[in-house]
Amino acid sequence: MRQLLRAVIFGILGYLIGAILTWLIRGGSLGDEVCVVFGYVVGLIGWLFGIGMGDTWVREWFGLPAREFEVTGWKRYLGFSTDHKVIGVQYLATFVVVLLLGGLAAMIIRFELAQAGEGILNADRYNQVMSMHGILMVAVAVAAILGSFGNYLVPIMIGADDMAFPRLNAVTFWLIPPVAIGLLAAPTLGSFDAGWTAYPPLSIVNNGGQILFVLAVTTFGLSSILGGLNVITTIVTMRAPGMTWGRLPIFVWAAFAASMISLLTTQFFAASLILIAMDRVAGTVFFDGGAGGDPLLYQHLFWFYSHPAVYVMVLPGFGVVLETITHMSRKPLFAYKAVVVSLLSIAGLSVIVWAHHMFTSGMADYLHGPFMFASEMISVPTGVIFLSAVATMWRGKLWMKTPLFFAMIWVFQFLMGGVTGIFLADVVTDVSLHDSYFVVAHFHYTIMGGMLFAFLTGIFFWFPKITGRMINDRLGIIFALWLTIAFQLTFLPQFWLGTNGMNRRIADYPEQLEGANLMSSISAFVLGGSFLLLVYILLSAAIRGPKAGDNPWNASTLEWQVSSPPPEHNFSGQPTIVGHPYGYGTAGSRHAEFADMAAGGQAQPKQAGTGEGADDE
Amino acid sequence: MDQDRRNDWIWFGSLWAIFSAIGFYLVLGIDLLPAQWAHEAEIVDDAYILLMGLSIPIFAGVAAALLTSLLRFRVQVDDIPTEDGPPVHNNRNFVRLWVASTLILALMITVNPGFIGIAELRGEPSADIVVEVQAQRWSWKVNYENGAETFNQLYLPADRRVRFDITSLDLVHSFWIPGFRVKIDAVPGRVTHLYVTPEGVGSFEDDFNLRVQCAEICGLGHAQMAMPVTVLAPADFDAWVSDLAEGA
């Protein structure tokens, strides 16, 4: 608490110092974008210093011992904690809140679009709300699974006691609040209205809120890069004895592949945004076609990150869903090695498909073919993921609890997103469908269907582990059905709207399209309502759900072999990995042994002996 | 193969057939696409229908496998599951077959409607008439070959190949005619091209998709940045355009 208060004070002081110094040197007014830029940067440094970097690294740089705070209970979640489980929960709580905020913006959007003509919002306000919805949800999609489950589970799953860089991990999380503050403060400078893609020249000539967008999203990118670095280093260096690469749980592989993408491509997004900032405040003309710059340069840089980014969103989702399916079907994951190869191939292919977002941008025609080809190729590794999900369930013993229910719905949702994606990867159909509501429907199926449904799968699957309490399963299934049905009724009409002449990002549309829009809007409100049930389910379970026990799903991976919630350093003794993670159906198969059987390694029914017959061959 | 396993496949096959039939009925039976007003619209819609036709069996197959699993493989668990499924870790031949078929399918659609469709859609770089379009927040200015000029109105001759030379004076806009199924961005500092052969005589009053709609967000007036398109019979168009040029 003290750290948080100090961080806020240092942040505000930093902002004022940066802004006022710039103002004194340069004149003009304090609200000028240059002052905001320098204020933000100094404020960000002040914030990080206040939240805990000052107590740790900075003191050590000057030869002083790092200052430790003994904080216990719920206050840990409000401070600079280096425990990966605390950070995982911080991410989870933060992004559920951001998700609900973004959802609120979605409700306003659908309210406006329920009828043709101007409703509650004028066109300007609409663009601002739409842009806010876009960037908040993109942030949720990028960081929610990797930040929460990635942090919470990866170290436990590989038998480590924490991440490789615990302090860096804390910094990674505490970079998020300035992002939120930056974005939510944008209305004070006139908000931003260029969508989450922020194409110039619009993003250079619009209101001053755009500069806060640029600063906040660049900060978010920094957090992404540091998080990716940490996850990769952890997986490479912190695996328990015997945890070979071929024995990693599939979620760990998925987190690895996604982290590779964020580590290696986020810089391009940051670079493109910094160039925008320079065009805005430093008088450069990188994207000014009239002065020798090129607006298309931005689009190439932007999509070089932002297409791979959709795999940062969904690859961890693949991991969550496959993990859930194999445990809840009580069968080994089908074609483990092929899935690993697919995850890595998707990560590789993701960086050579970006220009399929630009088939109608006016870029050179000869680029269309190669990018179309590369985009179609992604369907091959993605197909393997579907095969694995379906074949793992085939003749399994499906325990139809909420997590498996959600995982199966995920398969349907992402299939819908994948199949409609073919129409957008194909140049001929994309020339018609690009920037239409077909695209809107498509990416809600892939991102909301592929990432959010996986996030929900993960929440329902690991909630007992994280909180030690069970979720009301009946309500969970009602929520799943409610959400899924409302989802179809919201987004299926949008495919039709797209093919029938409705373009995206508009506050108003031809009145002939009113019927489908009204249907989509009403369904969207029903969809939004389902999240109230989710909040109730989670809160009631956290407060008075029945005790979960250590291993309520009787699952085989390491996180289920420790208490719920896990002890501070995860394991009381060093676990040794002796077999395949998913030895279901093989008598005597087991994944891990514990040096200290008293604490972590309780009896594991049907999981004894060595894992030889279980390895994937 | 024992009876039980055979029944799984029978369930799967039946559901697949049913889902595919429903899918084909919906796609072919319902008018999903609006009226075509250009030769290019036929090419795009043919590609759309072909991709739909290929997607439906794939979609139906995965959906059938999901439903079969839900109906046939679920078990009642009282407290904690004790029974495991069969320890099948892999089936190499099946995976190979799956990868090979998805690869072949992906290559197939890359060729057609991919490359073949692109070639058809682009056609020869020659045109009967050239129309210059200038986008500026939030309106369109159109120049015809003989000096005629219209503002927020686009007139085109039917059955003639038109080349649009498109540019923008300020932001990135996008020139989209839903009834023609084509679009290209209007980029400041560049001239982009689009070839279209309108078919049929009609106007915005007949079909609201006969309009140029800006499809790239450009601020306040983005939604309203549209102009009606009127397709005239070639003779009518010639008369109209020369009248306009003389008047100007």
How would you describe the overall organization of this protein?
Chain A is an all-alpha fold. Chain A is built from 18 helices and 2 strands. Chain A has 2 domains: 2-61, no CATH class; 81-544, Cytochrome c oxidase-like, subunit I domain (Cytochrome C Oxidase, Chain A, Up-down Bundle), CATH 1.20.210.10. Chain A has helices at 2-26, 33-61, 84-113, 123-157, 166-174, 176-185, 202-205, 209-237, 250-281, 295-329, 336-349, 368-377, 379-393, 402-425, 427-433, 437-467, 473-499, 514-544, and strands at 575-577, 592-594. Chain A has a two-stranded antiparallel ribbon with strand order 1-2. The longest helix of chain A is centred in the first third of the chain and has 35 residues, at 123-157. Chain A is globular, with a radius of gyration of 24 Å. Mean pLDDT of chain A is 91; it is low at 598-617. In chain B, a hairpin with a 2-residue loop joins β1 and β2. In chain B, α1 packs antiparallel against α2 and α2 runs antiparallel to α3. The mean pLDDT of chain B is 92. Chain B is built from 4 helices and 11 strands; from the N terminus they run αααβββββββββββα. The termini of chain B are far apart. At the A-B interface, α4, α10, α11, α12 and α13 of A face α2, α3, β7 and β10 of B.
